[in-house]
Automatic annotation (TrEMBL):
Keywords: Lyase. InterPro entries: DgoD-like, Enolase-like_C_sf, Enolase-like_N, Enolase_C-like, Mandelate_racemase_C, Mandelate_racemase_N_dom. Pfam families: MR_MLE_C, MR_MLE_N. It is an enzyme of class 4 (lyase). One of its GO terms (molecular function) is galactonate dehydratase activity. This is Galactonate dehydratase.
Length: 391
């Protein structure tokens, strides 16, 4: 059995493009995967074409060897490279598990748990009451954990202007002046959300690296009464020393890791205890092969894993197959919101199901879902360069 070709389809997935991938062998075996990176769709497709040329004729059962080869032979790394590697790697795991007739988690050591806790998203909205209503609706739908973004920082998710001033500009850096009312303003949202969902629901906030160290500490202090499960990426992700300082000075757990390029780039963050929660993304860090190494490193340092995963059905299936095997798994992100759910059914058969806020381990061979090739061929990606408000 040899790799014959790698095919890819960029498709519209609502507010971003997904790229679906299929590794095909000379004897008819296939493996499928999904990745995404906003605004760089063409780059990913071009990289996958090049990787297909490099891997043609190789043995698809040698996943570790091929993952190492794709990374080392490139000479230059970074996430634009590891996203392509992630796609191929996940497809290879899917292919091998299908050939053997077992689910991927069997090849990763077997299930440690039968259910994987997932959290969903809630827009901050135009007021504290709006966030509270959305959070309550998510709980009514069965979710036990909810994350939102920083109120006041994103016009697409918080459209109101505060009575004392404008929203924080979309491109404001972490070192620029913030309005003095901003931390009390953010706290009002989480007070309303906590009152709406009660004490047992997990609440989180994603800062997308928008704050400096001092303001991250001020945020954590303002939100401490509302018992957040974690604060995600309070400072720019490139500086483990900044994250470590925040973590050492606040009581709320700090999470980061979605932009790690592989297990090497994660090591300083985990070994220096900059985070309590590691958030690798299997579609960014190098696939299941690299994500498992990150999780093992985190386990050795007493760090939990909460996978970054705001994407579609195949990447979610891969994420949750791995999640089921990990002793130090905390929870996984999910983008099964009412706006995103239709795309899950559109592009794959047998998409993963979340019921009662959990994914139950699927015994289907491979990753589980299967691509709808005709639908992929019909879909047109949207190449729109929108840099506003998404830092």
């Amino acid at each position: 059995m040899k790799i014959d070709r790698i095919r890819s389809w960029p498709v519209d997935f609502g507010f971003y493009n997904a790229v679906y991938v299929r590794v095909e062998t000379d004897d008819g075996a296939v493996g499928e995967a999904e990745v995404a990176m906003r605004r760089r769709t063409r780059s990913i497709v071009a990289l996958l074409d090049e990787l297909g040329d490099e891997l043609r004729g190789q043995d698809p059962t040698r996943i570790e060897q091929l993952s190492e080869r794709m990374y080392r032979d490139a000479f230059l790394g970074g996430t634009l490279l590891t996203i392509g590697i992630s796609a191929v790697d996940m497809a290879l795991w899917d292919l091998n598990a299908r050939v053997l007739g077992v689910p991927v988690h069997r090849l990763l050591g077997g299930a440690f748990r039968d259910e994987v806790l997932v959290y969903t998203h809630a827009k901050a909205g135009e007021s504290p009451d709006a966030l509270a209503a959305t959070a309550r609706a998510r709980v009514d739908a069965g979710f036990k954990a909810i994350k939102t973004t920083l109120p006041g920082f994103y016009e697409k998710v918080t459209s109101v202007h505060h009575e004392h001033g404008q929203l924080v500009p979309a491109r404001q850096t972490e070192t620029e002046l913030l309005p003095p009312w901003i931390f009390g303003y953010i706290a009002e949202y989480f007070q309303a959300a906590r009152e709406a969902v009660g004490p047992d629901v997990h609440l989180m906030v994603d800062c997308h690296g928008r704050l400096n160290v001092a303001n991250s500490i001020r945020l954590a202090e303002a939100l401490a009464p509302y018992d957040l499960t974690f604060i995600e990426e309070p400072v720019p992700y490139e500086r483990p020393d900044w994250l470590r300082e925040v973590s050492s000075r606040v009581s709320t757990p700090i999470a980061a890791g979605e932009r790690w390029g592989n297990h090497f780039s994660s090591a300083p963050f985990i070994e220096q205890h900059t985070v309590a929660v590691a958030q690798p993304d299997v579609g960014i860090c190098g696939g299941l092969t690299a994500a498992r190494k990150i999780a093992t490193l985190a386990e050795a340092h007493g760090v939990s894993v909460a996978f970054h995963n705001p994407f579609g059905p195949l990447q979610s299936a891969a994420t949750w197959q791995l999640s089921a095997t990990l002793p130090n798994f905390l929870m996984s992100e999910s983008m099964i919101t009412p706006e995103q759910a239709p795309y899950w059914e559109r592009y794959v058969e047998n998409p993963p199901r979340v019921d009662g806020g959990v994914w139950r381990v699927d015994p289907s061979p491979g990753l589980g879902p299967r691509l709808r090739l005709e639908e992929l061929e019909r879909s047109e990606p949207r190449f729109v360069l929108d840099l506003g408000g998404t830092r």
